């Protein structure tokens, strides 16, 4: 039983690590705004799938790692991800019972709200940040990727016996 717990932790850590790598992967300059919000997608999946194990603390750790990797002020991504995780955590039963297409629409709204929140926090801290309207492409692409990501992560979760 103890060994199985470590397998689950390693699987979740690996998925978050791959999400961070995909989040910072360089894209062509013209397509920079269309990059999917991988960390938001992965965090949303794990909170909806395993709300007892993945929670606000995990969101804080992922946010701090995101801050350290991108070189932003420590806590900017963390506070937005904590608020996002809290809202998911209190509504997870309703959200996980929606169809995948409604969840995709909520993913689009969530990514837009997370990016607007990040913009507001950075605007308050830096005062010279401009809003990139291409972030809407990122939200739409994240919504399109949501059903496939759910199927992939669910198959991985069932394959390692993590119900």
Would you mind describing this structure in some detail?
With 163 residues, the protein is mainly α. It contains seven helices and no strands. It has helices at residues 2-24, 38-49, 56-70, 76-90, 92-96, 100-126, 135-159. Helix 2 packs parallel to helix 4 (76-90), helix 4 packs antiparallel against helix 6 (100-126) and helix 6 (100-126) packs across helix 7. The model has no long low-confidence stretch (mean pLDDT 91).
Instruction: Give the overall shape.
Output: globular
Overall pLDDT metric: 91
Q: How large a portion of the residues is in β-strands, by DSSP E?
A: under 5%
* Major sheet characteristics: none
What's the quick description here?
This protein is mostly helical and 163 residues long. The protein contains 7 helices and no strands.
What keyword list fits this structure?
163 residues; mainly alpha; 75% helix; 0% strand; globular
Task: Give the topology, please.
Layout: H1 2-24, H2 38-49, H3 56-70, H4 76-90, H5 92-96, H6 100-126, H7 135-159
Helix pairs in contact: 1-2, 2-4, 2-7, 3-4, 4-6, 6-7
